[in-house]
């Protein structure tokens, strides 16, 4: 397939910075229907490993990403994904940055099944008030948005003119859209980001960010969409 990486655009004043967000492969906690924060994350499912290996093969074959830094969140599923693709993009060392972790449910809910959560707290209103404690003892949506936004600003300052790959989570990619495109913190749109897909932004001369691609998962062709889920239980 043809490489999808666009050539960098520069001006005399501001070099182009590119951020490539890669959602981790399918996780064990997803298969087991568990709210898996960094405390309970046990890495990739067998399908998740295959997804990451497919992405690595694609990146090796196309050379579409010339990456200067490779960052992963502190969740085992993101670290494992990053380590699988690292040899395909120059053997970069994986830098672990907890600021790119998924929405933190807090120590009391981390590891709880989805059914147990709903039985105790009800179905969360993700499009509602971002300051409501959807996860009692964890982050509010507003706190999550602030954390991710601050991390993006920091990485953008530290890597001006470079391309940075960030292996992270669906929620982080959602918050990235809201931060870089100045969208509301909640509501208006929903994203359904595919495991190991590529989402790419680049800075423009105007100082704004441009979306280059979203949810690019061509390398997954022929793989199952997901693993069979564990039957839901409140235990």
Q: Structural class of the helices, strands and pairings?
A: alpha/beta
The value of Rg in angstroms is 18 Å
H and E string? EHHEHEHHEHEE
**Low-confidence spans: pLDDT under 50, at least 5 residues?**
none
Q: Figure out the total of helices.
A: 6
Q: Reading side by side through the largest sheet, how are the strands ordered?
A: 3-2-4-1-5-6
End-to-end C-alpha gap = 46 Å
Quote the CATH topology. Answer: Rossmann fold
Shape assignment: globular
Q: From the coordinates shown, what is the CATH architecture? A: 3-Layer(aba) Sandwich
**Which sheet architecture does the biggest sheet show?**
6 strands, mixed
- How much strand content do the residues show? 5-15%
* Helix-residue proportion: 25-40%
Specify the CATH class.
Alpha Beta
Written account of the structure:
- Helix 2 runs parallel beside helix 3 and helix 5 (141-158) packs across helix 6.
- The chain has six helices and six strands, in the order E-H-H-E-H-E-H-H-E-H-E-E.
- The protein has one domain: Phosphoglycerate mutase-like (Rossmann fold, 3-Layer(aba) Sandwich).
- It has 235 residues and is α/β, with parallel strands linked by helices.
- It has a six-stranded mixed β-sheet with strand order 3-2-4-1-5-6, sandwiched between helices.
- The protein is globular.
- Helices cover 29% and strands 14% of the residues.
């Amino acid at each position: 397939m043809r490489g999808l990486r666009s050539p960098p655009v520069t001006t005399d004043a501001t070099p182009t910075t590119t951020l490539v967000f890669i959602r981790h492969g399918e996780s064990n906690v997803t298969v087991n229907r568990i709210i898996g924060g960094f405390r309970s994350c046990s890495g990739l499912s067998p399908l998740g490993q295959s997804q990451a290996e497919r992405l690595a093969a694609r990146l090796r074959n196309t050379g579409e990403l010339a990456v200067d830094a490779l960052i992963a969140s502190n969740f085992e599923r993101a670290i494992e994904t990053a380590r699988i693709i690292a040899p395909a993009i120059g053997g970069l060392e994986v830098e672990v940055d907890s600021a790119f972790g998924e929405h933190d449910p807090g120590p009391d809910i981390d590891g709880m099944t989805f059914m147990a959560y709903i039985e105790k707290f009800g179905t969360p209103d993700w499009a509602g008030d971002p300051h409501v404690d959807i996860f009692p003892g964890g982050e509010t949506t507003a706190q999550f948005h602030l954390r991710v936004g601050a991390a993006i600003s920091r990485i953008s300052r530290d890597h001006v003119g470079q391309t940075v790959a960030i292996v992270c989570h669906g929620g982080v990619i959602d918050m990235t859209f809201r931060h870089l495109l100045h969208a509301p913190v909640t509501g208006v749109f929903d994203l359904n980001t595919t495991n190991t897909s590529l989402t790419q932004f680049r800075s423009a001369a105007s100082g704004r960010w441009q979306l280059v691609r979203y949810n690019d998962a061509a390398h997954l062709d022929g793989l199952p969409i997901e693993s069979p889920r564990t039957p839901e239980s409140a235990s």
